[in-house]
Design goal:
The chain has 259 residues and is an alpha/beta fold. It has two domains: 114 residues, 3-Layer(aba) Sandwich (Rossmann fold), CATH 3.40.50.10090; 125 residues, 3-Layer(aba) Sandwich (Rossmann fold). Helix 7 links the parallel strand 9 and strand 10. It is elongated and about 60 Å long.
């Protein structure tokens, strides 16, 4: 098997030390970063159509950094002032830290899950029963978070603040890849939309997360690489393991290892 060109359906890493670049050097492959999907923020008009008022909420729930960007964008566009007393509940430390882009970080009003799951935040929310929560989501949110909040008797409203759309390929854009790397079911949907007659053949497909893997298999695709796993906690380590096993002749520098 020969892998010369890999399409990673994510934006290009900003750091030159990214494990993707290390893999490219290690195996002599070309990494192309081309998202299959893109995010578009809702306009203030579309947001208002949901009849959700930001000032009526004393706590905001964030499950993604993108949600933070669009929450503060919409607040600015609608000239909504966010009080210093506002509370923020984030499903990870990295999401919580990202709030520093918009506010002065005070731990007394910011709560972060240590497990990466919303369920870990429920006890803290239940201690703040008088607060009214706003769950900021995208249009493709599956509703599981809202179901959990409802079951936990948390007083909340769900508000779509951005939408995910297909990032279409141009008719003359080359599609000569030996491996495709996906991170969401929407990426799989975009592939089928852009290339309805797509024939996988010997093209290797890598998927991150069980929902992405399921979407690929449901679409009739063969999944060759799954991450995370006990042996490959990250997508880059999974790709590295696959290339080491299936393309040993391409190994150029054994001292370069993907993280």
């Amino acid at each position: 098997m020969k892998v010369n060109k890999i399409l990673v359906s994510q934006p290009k890493p900003t750091s030159e030390k990214s494990p993707y670049f290390e893999i490219a050097e290690k195996y002599g492959v070309e990494m192309v970063f081309r998202p299959f999907i893109k995010v578009e923020g809702l306009s203030a008009k579309d947001f208002r159509a949901q009849k959700v008022s930001i000032p009526e909420h004393t706590a905001i729930i964030f499950t993604a950094k993108t949600a933070i960007d669009h929450f503060f964008r919409l607040a600015e566009e609608m000239r909504v002032s966010i009080p210093d007393t506002q509370k923020y509940f984030c499903t990870s430390e990295s999401i919580a830290n990202y709030l520093q882009k918009y506010i002065i970080y005070r731990k007394r009003k910011i709560f972060a899950s240590k497990t990466g799951k919303l369920a870990d935040l429920i006890p803290a929310m239940q201690k703040h029963k008088t607060d009214r929560y706003l769950l900021a989501v995208s249009d493709v949110n599956n509703g599981a978070d809202a179901d959990l909040l409802a079951q936990s008797k948390v007083n909340f409203d769900r508000a779509v603040m951005y939408r995910t759309v297909s990032n279409d390929f141009a008719p003359d854009e080359p599609f000569d890849y030996d491996m495709l790397v996906f991170f969401s079911p929407q990426g799989i949907e975009s592939l089928k939309r852009n290339f309805p007659d797509f024939n996988q053949g010997e093209i290797a497909i890598a998927t991150f997360g069980p929902t992405t893997t399921k979407a690929a298999k449901d679409a009739g695709l063969r999944v060759d690489i799954e991450a995370p796993s006990p042996k490959a906690p990250s997508m880059t380590s999974a790709i590295d393991n696959f290339l080491a096993e299936n393309c040993p002749d391409q190994l150029k520098n054994v001292n370069v290892a993907a993280q």
